[in-house]
Amino acid sequence: MKAQMTPLEEIRHSSAHILAAAVLRLFPEAQLDIGPPTDTGFYYDFDLDHKFTADDLEKIEAEMKKVIKENQKFIRMEVPRFEAIQMLKDFGQETYKLSRLDDIPDDEAISFYKNGEFLDLCAGTHVNYTKKVKAYKLLSIAGAYHRGDSNNKQLQRIYGTAFATKDELAEYLEMLEEAKKRDHRRISKEMQLFTFDSEQVGPGLPLWMPKGTVLVEELEKLAKETEFEAGYDRVRTPHIAKESLYLTSGHLPYYEESMFPAMEFEEEAGGDKVRYFLKAMNCPHHHKIFSAAPRSYRDLPLRFAEYGTCYRYEQSGELMGLMRVRSMQMNDAHIYCTSEQFEAEFNAVNEMYLKYFKLFGFDKYLMRFSTHDPKQLGKKFVDNPELWIKTENMVRDVLEKSGINYVEVPNEAAFYGPKIDVQVWSIIGREFTIATNQVDFAVPARFGLEYTTSENTKETPLCIHRAPLGTHERFIGFLIEHFGGDFPTWLAPEQVRILPISDKISDYAKTVLAELKAVGIRVTADLHAEKLGAKIRKAELEKVPNVLIVGAKEAEEGSVSVRSRFDGDRGTMTLDAFKTDLVDAIQSRKLQFKPKAD
After folding, report:
1. How far apart (Å, rounded) are the C-alpha atoms in residues 427 and 540?
2. Are β-strands 496-500 and 462-467 bridged in parallel, bridged antiparallel, or unpaired?
3. Which of 405, 409, 439, 447 could in theory staple to 287 by disulfide, Cβ–Cβ 3.0 to 4.6 A?
4. Does one domain contain both 442 and 333?
5. pLDDT tens sequence across 32-59
6. What residues form DSSP beta bridges with 327?
7. How far apart are CA 146 and CA 100, in angstroms?
8. Considering its fold, how many domains does the chain have in total?
9. What is the pLDDT of residues 586-598, one digit of tens each?
10. Whole-model pTM?
């Protein structure tokens, strides 16, 4: 069946074919794998002994321009399987394409697309002529395993982007440049927020430095306050558990490859060896807490919250700063409720998301509602078609009634129930997945979780898994890029820096320091023997939101001269007025932005 694409997807898909055609002109020995459109552009995977360089990208892009100028027509051809095999062999592209041909079911049409001398096994669709591609750019080169399997050969992937107009392309490229400035790894190094030591600690295991730890603790404080107001109870669970816990939950068959290898111990009693795993998720532990006491319908809903540290053995090639790590602190909670309570509870979780969006200035968001595939029941998803339909309808109803911006995505649910992945866009328009909200109708029954109903019968509760702030690691990585390191005062690792204009003012600077510390403000005083201009520049580079300059006049008046990264020069204020103003901004968690990174 002919695949349907949007006009932009067709431009990007056609750009991938034009890229491959250009590569084969320059490197005829290259073997092609796949080249699909993506949400931000396109890519194509190549098997080639020659290692692509930045200079090669320029040459390939120039050759793409020639292909486009030739205004080649995209021609679709449907052929029987035996003919498709011969066509790939004649074109010299049987290495990977024949295996892709095997993926096509016997009852589906086999199609090729041809433009000029280039031929590709492809379901389509494309623009009519190559000249329809007018705004494109090759961006980068990366390694990519064939079929995403590290046991297979690593190919070379060329990434590019394309848009309908040159203005849209220019806007996107400008966003990428701004994103480079805001890269959380670069900013963290400048601000000393976190570090990694792959040699002795291990890849993907972040070490939080003092300033980064402030971010962690401020977010945890925010979550605890928010969850306390919403009626959550806090719990704590260990970092490891026996294999049997994860067998009961059903996680091991699905996630063992993503978990750290088991540790085997000989138990004191009996001498049998028992396997333990590092905790990859908190939910089985919370289920055991629920089952530790008799539960009645009068107790529900029960909301257990924990900042539990989890460990997942992400592939080394997938690790990326704080965005993909192996040790993570999850803003996790599990809500146990009746079917009648579900709508209110699920909606309350979504309302909590919206509260956080407003607090951090996330103007654009999208809830990705993931459902199951009936064909995958018993394989990818728990085999209970009635509960799948029931819970998906329940989630859909809540989303519709609340008016929340969402899109429905098939075949991406959790194995135990439908889920929502929360997509947000940073201030510069970059998209991130930061959180999740899931329904679990299967695992509570595996643990025998029950509550006594008003009719004195036993029922299994529904469970809502939710993590509005996701993991500290990923969320902070996003916030670094969202704010460009210019955190609002309430969140900033260092909220105030005092700069005396000479050594003679050091005593007054220390007095100001003590008064601000006394009301809980994170403040330092730069008493080094440097010129004031150098001190100011240092504070700017380290993105301190409030700088207080004090001289003889300020010392005599009990005042401070205030410079704000957000509001500029605020002039002279009494120390008491500044203190009151700042404490209010911190306690109210006032949103502040400095739009461009330095």
Report:
1. 21
2. unpaired
3. 447
4. yes
5. 999 999 989 999 999 999 999 999 999 9
6. 311
7. 11
8. 3
9. 999 999 987 554 4
10. 0.85
